[in-house]
Design a protein that fits this description.
Blueprint: H1 3-16, H2 25-41, H3 56-77, H4 81-95, H5 98-101
Helix pairs in contact: 2-3
Protein name: NTP pyrophosphatase, house-cleaning of non-canonical NTPs
GO biological process, one term: nucleoside triphosphate catabolic process
Pfam family, one: MazG-like
């Protein structure tokens, strides 16, 4: 299944339920943040366990929720998600050139 097919399925799911009327940018952005917080809960109190592999199924569900809300927000804003990601990746490539950023976690202002 392609990204465009999934995007169409998400928007069809929304439209079949007449939910677009509730999907203003503010509430969709809040929903993205809330779902991202639920993804973070998968790692809460994990101590030194950085993977939390036993929680992977829940992580997948929460990540899917984040992405679904992002797709609905992009639709509401008239943003093509693929083009937005491509543009952002180009910006990041300029901020983090391989020769300066490779193997480093520093912010671009510190490279």
């Amino acid at each position: 299944m392609t990204f465009d097919e999934v995007r169409r399925d998400i928007l069809r799911f929304r439209d079949e339920r007449d939910w677009a009327q509730f999907h203003n940018p503010k509430d969709l952005a809040i929903s993205v943040s809330l779902e991202a917080a639920e993804l973070l809960e998968c790692f809460q109190w994990s101590g030194t366990d950085l993977e939390c592999a036993e929680r992977a199924p829940r992580m997948e569900e929460e990540l899917a929720d984040v992405m679904i809300y992002c797709i609905m927000l992009a639709d509401r804003l008239g943003v093509d998600p693929v083009e937005a990601m491509r543009h952002k990746l180009e910006q990041n490539a300029r901020k983090y050139p391989v020769e300066k950023a490779c193997g480093r976690s520093s912010k671009y202002t510190e490279l």
